[in-house]
Design brief:
- The structure is a homodimer of 415-residue chains.
- The first copy, chain A, folds into two domains: 4-281, L-amino peptidase D-ALA esterase/amidase; 289-411, ArgJ beta chain, C-terminal domain (Ubiquitin-like (UB roll)).
- Helix content of chain A is 33%, strand content 27%.
- Chain A has helices at residues 57-68, 86-107, 133-145, 152-158, 211-224, 259-281, 300-312, 314-321, 328-335, 370-377, 404-411, and strands spanning 4-6, 16-21, 34-49, 70-80, 119-126, 167-175, 178-187, 200-205, 240-245, 289-297, 347-352, 355-361, 364-365, 381-387, 393-400.
- In chain A, strands 1, 2, 3, 4, 5, 6, 7, 8 and 9 form a nine-stranded mixed β-sheet that branches. A six-stranded mixed β-sheet of chain A has the order 13-12-11-14-10-15.
- In chain A, helix 2 runs parallel beside helix 3 (133-145) and helix 7 packs across helix 9 (328-335).
Chain lengths: 415, 415
Amino acid sequence: MQLKWVEGGVCAPKGFVANGMLAGIKKNSKKDDVALIFSDTVCSAAGVFTQNKVTAEPVKLTRSRCREGHAQAIFINSGNANACTGAQGAKNAQRMSDAAVKALNDFAPSPVPINKDDVLIASTGVIGVQLPIEKIEKITSDLVHGLSKDGNTKARVAIMTTDTKFKECAVEFELDGKKVHIGTMAKGSGMIHINMGTMIASVTTDCCISSQMLDKALRESVAGTYNCVSVDGDTSTNDSMMILANGQAQNSEIITTGKNYELFLEALNAVNTKMARKIAADGEGAEHLIECTVTGASTVQSARSLAKSVISSSLVKAAFFGKDANWGRILCALGYSGELFTPEKTSVTFSNSKGSEKVFDHGVPLNFDEDKASIILNEKEIKILVEMEDGKATGTAWGCDLTYNYVKINGDYRT
Amino acid sequence: MQLKWVEGGVCAPKGFVANGMLAGIKKNSKKDDVALIFSDTVCSAAGVFTQNKVTAEPVKLTRSRCREGHAQAIFINSGNANACTGAQGAKNAQRMSDAAVKALNDFAPSPVPINKDDVLIASTGVIGVQLPIEKIEKITSDLVHGLSKDGNTKARVAIMTTDTKFKECAVEFELDGKKVHIGTMAKGSGMIHINMGTMIASVTTDCCISSQMLDKALRESVAGTYNCVSVDGDTSTNDSMMILANGQAQNSEIITTGKNYELFLEALNAVNTKMARKIAADGEGAEHLIECTVTGASTVQSARSLAKSVISSSLVKAAFFGKDANWGRILCALGYSGELFTPEKTSVTFSNSKGSEKVFDHGVPLNFDEDKASIILNEKEIKILVEMEDGKATGTAWGCDLTYNYVKINGDYRT
């Protein structure tokens, strides 16, 4: 398939506008902290959410709305997670949604009134502090008035917390001779682990696809992309990934698996993989992006699980920070992954644009070139290839190194 | 039961001697690196080992010997893990054992010759480098000649790697009116996680107990002590815990569960709990010992699992380093533990000798005293009490904070 990377992020698909503004949720912060994405027609909607038993209030609300399969807007705040906030938190989540519905209908940017349950909301930031909902309510009308086709540039920044870079991308591809777009933005830097590799991601598309197929594609794609990212092993109370599809590309609706479903999934995978790499590279304090690919595993699930175990290991992560070719820790992490494999038929190679160096071959340590390894490990991106001979499946996971700055950022996050 | 803490470590029980020496396994290191523990009569023996699929060669050998239920000596080296070393590594593990058997029989410190399979061996240190076995063979005879009743002071240091403190203790208690002793030493500072909370621990006792009951007591005790310690989430290739019981206390042999078994288990738990705390407090780079106790959980297993999740969280660990009362991360870690509980009936309190401060009460954040919390968090030892109302079970886990020094130590461990 021809995939063309395009500008515009969540506004790249037809019919979508966005905006970002400062509500002042976090004291003394001057960065925009509320973002709104809006489609001028109702969309198929799907979402995947944290598996944490302690679930933030906006997640509870949005999860039940995604089950209905339709929505028209995504309203996100940073600076406060609205988690562990009890009954008042639930009330505030509802008020946040209500404020968006009211402002959207007052200003009427869509031809028909927006349904009161068609806003998906998400919050990210500190846990256990009540959301200053009045501040959000106060600016929602202005936020709606400012919705625009280039508002993605404001929205993508407004959702950031400890992120050092905004994260967005968009693709264009063809279905039935019609141009279809998928756009996305995400935030995520710490408290990131494999069971939902980000705190909040929004995907928009003008593809015409049923909510059932949209849900299926989202789950399938997330398993091999966002769910293969780890920064620190902590899955948050707020992880949310939402997708809206408004059908304005006018391809014939995807209502079953088949060629068009596969094409859509391929494009979605491309977008999500790019975002997964961006999130790992911008992991809190990260100096290196670490990509681990396991080949020759017995199943795809096993390959992914082995790769995730490697990039999740604190010792592996600290070794990459120290630019130390300590491959023994990689073997160790493979060994405690819980997956079956044959250590005697396992090999390990480090590589990137600077070269390739095999350090372990079929269970035996190699007398490798430390200087060549050091040149590879000095680069920003490092690939670990783990070759096994237990099957034919491949899996990749993305992570980052563990640095002084990770400790610093998280030692004084709240205060 | 009356438990009396005594001096002597692994040499406290009757009939045990020990020694430590420098073999020069790690280049340029002047610290003793081989340790030997010896009982002048054959012992009941048991062991628990790493569940890592990548298992060091000495672990393979020692595990099979522990299954036989008898042994007479424990021979340990630091500086090299003899892991990921293939067929040559297996040969070297056997040579290490053979060297001890030969030296012990040449010098004949025991009335009858030691059986060639009655030496348990263990190695700890860097992974993937061949063991310099000749250096060990060269000094084994001197090591045996130097065995003595106060050799625990040398042995406990010889097994250390990145440990900053030696770890040993011993207790005395009574069974059938006889004085019984349990002594132990352990090393462990990094690559430590809940499925075997240390790399190497040796326990000696003069209790008369069958190998079946010894094995049962060891497994039962480890589940609530060593297996509840986490420093960094990495389970090593070399984790080994071995226990020798020579029966010289002359109590009537424990061959079944019952009062005497329970008394022995209680003493073993006391010893192992003390060691678990020592290991967590000396976690690589650690500045704080964190003890998390969960009460009111549905089962003991669930309580332990919840407590382990808290002390394993990188974000919780970084917050304690920063002396930040960020209790939201504790809730978050409880939530992704995989255990069922009721967040709305959960409360969290920080405490230690400086005071006690409840921060979260039945699902609702408290407006707690930040100054009082800060005084508590400035201490070396911090207790987190998590009160639930889902049942009556209690569990405790031990960990440490995540510091710049952890990253530093592990960034340049190999080089």
